[in-house]
Amino acid sequence: MPRIAIIGSGPTGIYSLAGLISSATPLSITIFEETPDAGKGTPYHPAINDRAMLANIASIEIPRIEQTLVEWLSSRSDSELQELGIERSAIGEREFYPRIVLGEFLAAQFWILVNQGLSRGHSIDVKASHRILDIKLGKDNITLKFKRHGGDDAAMSFDHVVMATGHDWPENTETSPGYFVSPWPAAAIKRIGAVEVGVLGTSLSGIDAVVSVATAHGMFLRDDNGALRYEPDASSHGFSITMMSRKGLLPEADFYCPIPYEPLRFCTEEAIRLLTEQKQERLLDEVFELFRRELAAADPDYAARIGLALASVEDIADRYFRARQHADPFVWAAENLAEAKKNKAERQTVQWRYAILRMHEVIALAIPRLNDRDLKRFHKDFKTVFVDDYATVPHESVERLLALHQAGKLSVKALGDDYDISRGGEKPGAVVIVDGDECKYDAFIDATGQHALSASDLPFPSLRQTGAIEEAKTRKAEVSATDETRRTGGVEINDDFRPRVGPGLSNNLYCVSVPFLLHKMPFIQGITSAHEMGSNVAATIIDAVANLDLLVHSG
């Protein structure tokens, strides 16, 4: 049997497995999972998350595995739903659930796939509590060196290896007293006392951090009218949280829109692909023209309101955020939440938001083709519009922020571009300096989420060796005779997610580990991206196996 290894059993590993078991040729599939619980994935694992942390993807958005999330929840017994903290009446395809609920759902789907694969004649070996120590590319195979928890090192060789290692979180979160480089594991930050807490980041990761700390010093309660309030403990007088980011804005509430997405009129995949072939030197500006045309057609009133006709790549973010930046963040959040709830109840779509949401997936096709100058322009000026639009958060997340603010426990701070954050030194926490003003926090959490990593950050020594795999490169805007490219970090991959490797080495490694792709694929995060990557890789492997079968039989 062709030997396939999948490193990681989170969403990308699961969708890879789902594709592989459709192979007509029996496969030998080995799945390596570092934790004892295969299938849950780090972002949804109960050992990492607080029960109050919400996922920002609804059932209708999760690509089907064997069941939808709603189907799986509906098939649970009342006692199982009670254990998950879900009321049967609250199950719905557009509802949001705690991260750990998604973890249980994904694990259930994973084991269904394993059993299906076995029944179809595949050999499947799930190696939980196995940590991959190294990946060594050979001429005709790939050797994995691994360690079982409490056991000795061992090695196995494979024909194809899927590197679905997912998010990269530090092993030690509290790197100095009171300074946390991540909100995960949640148990670490729940030990923070009733002190002044600073949280860097206002996205869902920041909200996760805020909620985890807040539930250690009080509780969220709903009154008879359904309004959420925060009730602090009697001993929490010194407790307060300041969320901070460059703009000092809170994310907007999830908005209603048709799913599957309606087709775009101007900013289409075909139009983007044509530009990548014909307009490489002006690619970003040409893509921006498609963006303007699509947005203006979708919502002329909004286009006029922000002056879209005069907008450029460099100032579109300023126009997009201008109204919010001139408003109190909590007043804006309350009004936006009310609008989002009303639109959901009435199934009304805000067209400009929907247009930007649909365009981000199409425009993503052009980003790896940008030259170095335009890639910098995109990341600096244009990307934030899409990130803000698609990174909306569950309504309950906004309600929690408003409840904390009304209780006098939460504020938001704009850092701007000129700020400095330093460890507390002899004292715990951190000091934040903005425009010369100094603020001291007894505890500080960096909740800015997953950061892009370079090829040199790969945790596998053999892959870091010179000549193994290439670091991602981008064309220079001004080409010289000696050097036509510039390093941009991450791993250089082809359209099948295969890293570009040195001569004489197997090219059957597939890098679908998000941190190493973010430099040139900044939107490739979340379960929908996991489905896209896993399905793509599985199809490539099945084609390779089928072609090998043809060669063998024809020979």
Structure, explained:
It contains 16 helices and 21 strands. It is of the alpha/beta class. The strands form six sheets. It has a six-stranded mixed beta sheet with strand order 8-9-18-10-13-14. Strands 3-2-1-7-21 form a five-stranded parallel beta sheet, with helices on one face. The chain is globular. The chain starts with a strand and ends with a helix. The relative contact order is 0.15. The model has no long low-confidence stretch (mean pLDDT 94).
Q: Write out the strand line-up for the largest beta sheet, numbering strands in chain order.
A: 8-9-18-10-13-14
- Average pLDDT, rounded to a whole number, is 94
CATH superfamily of the largest domain: FAD/NAD(P)-binding domain
How much strand?
Answer: 15-25%
Distance between the termini: 18 Å
Number of beta-strand segments: 21
What is the helix content? 25-40%
Number of domains: 3
**Number of helices, where a helix is a run of at least 4 consecutive DSSP H or I residues:** 16
- In the CATH scheme, what's the topology name of the largest domain? FAD/NAD(P)-binding domain
CATH architecture of the largest domain: 3-Layer(bba) Sandwich
